[in-house]
């Protein structure tokens, strides 16, 4: 039985509540393990995303004059990394 069934909640509301509680618990864990360790992890994740974006910008296969393919690939990097951007919504 999942959370929606247990509490008879709308799935999107259940997800939002779940995310909020999980974020609070993760914050407690982060503070107990040391903020420097979390900062290092965030830094390494940011560097990884930037390296992927750099690879997109340097990719000779993505060479349309308006850079649509590069922009689309960068948006994909964001989404694949769990980051959001409104750019993708504008194109749909």
Brief summary of the model shown:
The chain has helices at residues 3-7, 11-33, 35-58, 68-80, 87-91. It is an all-alpha fold.
Can you describe what's shown?
The chain is built from 5 helices and no strands. The longest helix has 24 residues, at 35-58. α3 (35-58) packs antiparallel against α4. It has helices at residues 3-7, 11-33, 35-58, 68-80, 87-91. The chain folds into 2 domains: 1-33, no CATH class; 34-92. The protein is an all-alpha fold and 92 residues long.
Order of helices and strands: HHHHH
N-end to C-end Cα span: 35 Å
Tell me, what's the shape?
Answer: flat
What's the tally of helices? 5
- The beta-strand count equals 0
Low-confidence stretches: none
* Major sheet size, sense and barrel closure: none
Radius of gyration: 18 Å
Q: Helical amount among residues, as a percent range?
A: over 70%
**What structural class do the secondary elements suggest?**
mainly alpha
Task: Calculate the mean pLDDT score and round it.
Answer: 81
Count of folded domains? 2
Percentage of β-strand residues = under 5%
Per-chain topology:
Elements: H1 3-7, H2 11-33, H3 35-58, H4 68-80, H5 87-91
What structural keywords apply?
92 residues; mainly alpha; 2 domains; 76% helix
């Amino acid at each position: 039985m999942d959370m929606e069934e247990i509490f008879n909640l709308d799935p999107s509301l259940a997800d939002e509540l779940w995310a909020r509680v999980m974020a609070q618990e993760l914050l407690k864990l982060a503070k107990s393990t040391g903020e420097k360790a979390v900062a290092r992890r965030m830094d390494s994740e940011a560097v990884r995303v930037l390296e992927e974006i750099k690879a997109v910008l340097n990719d000779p296969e993505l060479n349309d004059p308006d850079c649509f393919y590069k922009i689309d690939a960068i948006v994909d990097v964001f989404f694949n990394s769990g980051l959001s951007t409104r750019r993708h919504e504008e194109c749909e």
